[in-house]
Amino acid sequence: MNSDSNPVLTLAWTFGVMSLFAVGGANSAIPEMHRVAVDVNHWLSDKQFADVYAIAQLSPGPNVLIVTLIGYSVAGLVGALVATVAMCVPTAVLALIVSRFLTRASQARWPGIIQAALVPLSIGLMGASGFILARTSDRTVVAVLVTSGAAVLASVTKLNPLWMLVAGGCLGFAGLIG
Amino acid sequence: MPPDSSSAAVAAPDISTSPPSLITLFVAFAKMSLAGFGGVLVWARRGIVDQHKWMTADEFNETFALCHFLPGPNIVNLTFVFGSRLRGLPGAVAAFTGLLGPPALIMVVMGALYSRYGDIDALRRILSGVACAAIGLMLAVVFRMMTPLLKRRDVTALLVMAVVFIAIGITRLPLPLVLIVAIPISIAITYWMRRQAA
Q1: Smallest Cβ distance to A54: which of B84, B130, B179?
Q2: Residues of chain B with C-beta less than 8 angstroms from the C-beta of A137
Q3: How far is CA A136 from CA B5, B96, B107, in A?
Q4: Range(s) of the domain holding residue A105
Q5: How far apart are the two ends of chain B, measured CA to CA in Å?
Q6: What total of structural domains would you count in chain A?
Q7: In this predicted complex, what is the ipTM?
Q8: Which residues 49-88 in chain A show a CB within 8 A of chain B?
């Protein structure tokens, strides 16, 4: 990898390419972000990555903005801007081109097939995201209980997810997470 | 507050004659984005379909399906495509910057606070707790997306899912490599299964 060169260029290249492989959205790309930011480039530690993920979840806006935080921690404001643009602009332009093409080609059944084929892939990727993050964060019994409690509550109730994040934060502040 | 937001809700959703101004687009998407904790999709649907009536529910679903099968952050793709439908490329840029600009600024402020105060013990504890809950939320999404596959007893899809999970989550192979292998296989299987079913 070209981690010796300008980190801003590395950010642009890394996230530009990653966005094109992010099938199923930003959360599917979390393992790849973790691999690139922690294992390959050593931009963040395991713990910092988990913190960055938590901050991104606590903040409003699309989930993809975790790349803004990663970019900021690598190269400040410029890094934040470059990472965000690299992750968002190429695929948005691609989406625009494809949508114009598809509205012209009216009888299209391939999108349906491709979409159905991508569903198991994106579930597998998101499951891997959860697994990788949990391996770092869920080191105590209470931590595992918080994760599983939030998972169950979010699956069976319509409770606003923000409350679960707040509850997790309170338990953490009380020193129960470890 | 744009004065046309209430009248637009009353008037017929005929956007072809009077598309919203670029500023209206920017503000509308900034609002949806800033309301969206843990995902913007719900708010985007409310804003675009219910509040502004810029799209019907079906149009929204179709556009979202398109953006979901393309790579990249879905809601960002949707915003860009939607903005261009209303006002061409300038509309796309206005909606896009509305969606991403304000929350990205917040993110930068959070990043600055974290780099300065991230070592404070209380903050570290809080963030660990938040992270645990956030991971639970992600697992809930995984579970909800798996439910239809489980109900259909779609063994092949579940198998593809498990292989991708192991390749990425456990053996930590690079994403491009895994997808270059998995996407053609999954498409071939899906195509074949549909032909068998037909």
Answers
A1: B130
A2: 128, 131-132, 135
A3: 46, 33, 22
A4: 7-109
A5: 53
A6: 1
A7: 0.83
A8: 50-65, 68-69, 72-73, 77, 80, 84, 87-88
